[in-house]
């Protein structure tokens, strides 16, 4: 017989290694994740991994149970206290809503909103089975929040959002806090924000990766499967003409050595964000079965993950250099060498700047079209907000 308690405790100990609070760890112990994943073997349900629970007609994931570690980190960012009222955008399996209910305790309230009626129905049944009938699950467009229970002390999105919906900000109380996986030109960071006068400022920024929000509030990001045989997929911050990527990958290529060494964590957290907010041609490529991509320093278990630049049927991506040595850039297509030179320049600039990462980043959210424009502070204009990104101590370029 499977020892569910031991499996759960093992998961909690792995998550605790990331420095989460005792309060959140206790919530993870109290909520049986396997009940929210009835089609998953318990041993798999208690791995510290995201589990896809629904795909679209093209096979792309559209709903999942997020990795417990990132869920715990976001719950710590949220800073919940007993008795608080919470709005969750993106119900998923209902597991995170149950954790929210544990953390708000007696006297609190949790409203979870999802646009997909099938997901809402399944989450309702699983919350009831797990002993959390007090959670309200609503089928609606999360971009509108849920005004009937406002104001809220906290709002959390468990789905990737491109912009801050005005409804969330309006439905938060004066001392409220918002935690969202926010899109920063195709990469996501979990950002905890609070009011500061007429705008919002971040309290903490953590790397993350979530399914994108669907419906009218979806962003312009493009994720496209290029080759089903290898699951080769490209991600772009917005749709644009990039030419025949497969032909470029199947053609002649060349490798260029850089003068920079960096580990996987630095590249995923620091350089990935640096490139995204400074290079309009940036892209990410993913592969689940070996095919066209080289081995890269950002690979994940079971995934080849490549970051680079793509334009007019040519592209380049970071790859491993010599063991223990500097990184290399692999170039494809007629303009590949020129793109490689640009990628190497970005890498050098990031290195010279002190390798800034998410932990140093401060984000301000101002009303659309307003807010400061200053050298060295990337500005991302959205539908409803202007985001200003600052790394304290970083000299203007």
UniProtKB/TrEMBL annotation:
<dbReference type="InterPro" id="IPR029063">
    <property type="entry name" value="SAM-dependent_MTases_sf"/>
</dbReference>
<dbReference type="GO" id="GO:0032259">
    <property type="term" value="P:methylation"/>
</dbReference>
<dbReference type="InterPro" id="IPR027573">
    <property type="entry name" value="Methyltran_FxLD"/>
</dbReference>
<protein>
    <recommendedName>
        <fullName>Protein-L-isoaspartate O-methyltransferase</fullName>
        <ecNumber>2.1.1.77</ecNumber>
    </recommendedName>
</protein>
<keyword id="KW-0949">S-adenosyl-L-methionine</keyword>
<dbReference type="InterPro" id="IPR000682">
    <property type="entry name" value="PCMT"/>
</dbReference>
<keyword id="KW-0489">Methyltransferase</keyword>
<comment type="similarity">
    <text>Belongs to the methyltransferase superfamily. L-isoaspartyl/D-aspartyl protein methyltransferase family.</text>
</comment>
<dbReference type="Pfam" id="PF01135">
    <property type="entry name" value="PCMT"/>
</dbReference>
<dbReference type="GO" id="GO:0005737">
    <property type="term" value="C:cytoplasm"/>
</dbReference>
<keyword id="KW-0963">Cytoplasm</keyword>
<keyword id="KW-0808">Transferase</keyword>
<dbReference type="GO" id="GO:0004719">
    <property type="term" value="F:protein-L-isoaspartate (D-aspartate) O-methyltransferase activity"/>
</dbReference>
């Amino acid at each position: 017989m499977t020892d569910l308690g031991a499996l759960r405790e093992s998961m909690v100990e792995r998550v605790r290694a990331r420095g989460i609070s005792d309060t959140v760890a206790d919530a993870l112990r109290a909520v049986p994740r396997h009940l929210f994943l009835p089609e998953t073997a318990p041993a798999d349900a208690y791995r510290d991994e995201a589990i896809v629970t629904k795909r679209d007609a093209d096979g792309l994931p559209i709903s999942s149970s997020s990795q417990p570690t990132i869920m715990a980190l976001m719950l710590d960012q949220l800073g919940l206290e007993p008795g608080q009222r919470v709005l969750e955008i993106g119900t998923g399996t209902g597991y995170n809503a149950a954790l929210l209910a544990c953390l708000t305790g007696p006297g609190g309230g949790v409203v979870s909103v999802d646009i997909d009626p099938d997901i809402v129905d399944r989450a309702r049944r699983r919350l009831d089975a797990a002993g959390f009938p007090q959670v309200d699950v609503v089928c609606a467009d999360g971009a509108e929040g849920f005004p009937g229970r406002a104001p809220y002390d906290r709002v959390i999105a468990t789905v990737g959002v491109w912009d801050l919906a005005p409804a969330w900000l309006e439905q938060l109380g004066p001392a409220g806090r918002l935690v969202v996986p926010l899109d920063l030109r195709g990469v996501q960071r979990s950002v905890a924000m609070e009011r500061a006068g007429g705008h919002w400022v971040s309290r903490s920024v953590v790397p993350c990766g979530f399914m994108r929000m669907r419906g009218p509030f979806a962003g312009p990001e493009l994720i496209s499967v290029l080759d089903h045989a290898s699951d080769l997929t490209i991600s772009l911050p917005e749709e644009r003409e990039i030419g025949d990527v497969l032909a470029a990958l199947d053609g002649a290529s060349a490798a260029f050595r850089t003068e920079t060494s960096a580990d996987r964590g630095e590249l995923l957290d620091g350089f990935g964000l640096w490139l995204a907010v400074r290079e309009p041609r940036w892209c990410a490529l993913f592969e689940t079965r070996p095919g066209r991509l080289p081995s890269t320093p950002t690979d994940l278990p079971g995934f080849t993950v490549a970051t680079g630049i793509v334009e007019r049927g040519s592209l380049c991506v970071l790859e491993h250099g010599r063991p223990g040595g500097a990184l290399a850039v692999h170039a494809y297509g007629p303009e590949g060498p020129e793109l490689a030179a640009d990628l190497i320049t970005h890498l050098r600039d990031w290195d010279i700047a002190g390798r800034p990462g998410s932990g140093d980043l401060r984000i301000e959210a101002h009303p659309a079209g307003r807010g400061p424009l200053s050298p060295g502070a990337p500005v991302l204009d959205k539908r409803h907000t202007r985001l200003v990104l600052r790394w304290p101590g970083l000299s203007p370029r």
